[in-house]
Amino acid sequence: MKIEFTLNGKPVDVDLSPNLRLIDVLREHFGLRSLKEGCGEGECGVCTILMDDRAVTSCIIPLGMVQGRKIETLESIRETHNFKIIRKAFEKTGAVQCGFCTPGMVVATEALMRKRNKPTRKEIIEAISGNLCRCTGYHMIIEGIEEAVQKREGI
Ligand code: FES
Ligand code: FES
């Protein structure tokens, strides 16, 4: 079955089973190695991508679901203005420790920053509620996101 979608800004199509997991297609067919797999069950958030600007876990999305949608991975998110701000903010607050959760946290932060100009602390906590971190106790990540939002606003 031919499935067409936009991947990192470019129109693409694949002729593969719609039941394949999106994470596998992105990694193996398109070579997008920024995507990591943790739990494989939609629980840890390590495999987070953007689908139509929303953060979703690619390990539980079947390929057939992306027909006509806009998919973005860290490979293109790394080129955004927000990403530069997020990276500096995360460095400043110590949000990156072992780094395992960081790609998913960055993608979730990018989704939040696209959706809300000035998210509240509650909205920040909600935005990363699907992303597990075993190192930071989340405080440094939440502070990193607050810092990123403030820097973008020029506060
Ligand atoms: S690997 Fe997808 S949520 Fe854990
Ligand atoms: S920094 Fe290690 S899991 Fe989050």
Give the percentage of residues in beta strands: 5-15%
Largest sheet: 5 strands, mixed
Query: What is the straight-line distance between the termini?
Result: 50 Å
Bound molecules: FE2/S2 (inorganic) cluster
Question: What is the CATH architecture term of the largest domain?
Answer: Roll
Count of discrete structural domains: 2
- CATH class of the largest domain equals Alpha Beta
CATH topology call of the largest domain:
Ubiquitin-like (UB roll)
Q: CATH superfamily of the largest domain, called what?
A: Beta-grasp domain
Q: How are the strands of the biggest sheet laid out side by side?
A: 2-1-5-3-4
Q: Got a strand count?
A: 5
Return the string of H and E elements: EEHEEEHHHHH
Supply the helix-strand structural class: alpha+beta
Q: For the CA atoms, what is the radius of gyration?
A: 15 Å
Total number of helical segments?
Answer: 6
Average pLDDT, rounded to a whole number, is 96
Helix content bin: 25-40%
List keywords for this structure.
155 residues; five-stranded mixed sheet; binds FE2/S2 (inorganic) cluster; 15% strand; DNA polymerase, domain 1; 39% helix; Ubiquitin-like (UB roll); 6 helices
Q: How does this structure look, described?
A:
It is a single chain. 39% of the residues lie in helices and 15% in strands. The chain has six helices and five strands. A five-stranded mixed β-sheet has the order 2-1-5-3-4. It is an alpha+beta fold and 155 residues long. It folds into two domains: 2-76, Beta-grasp domain (Ubiquitin-like (UB roll), Roll); 81-153, DNA polymerase, domain 1, CATH 1.10.150.120. The radius of gyration is 15 Å and the shape is globular. The site of one FE2/S2 (inorganic) cluster (FES) has 12 residues, from loops.
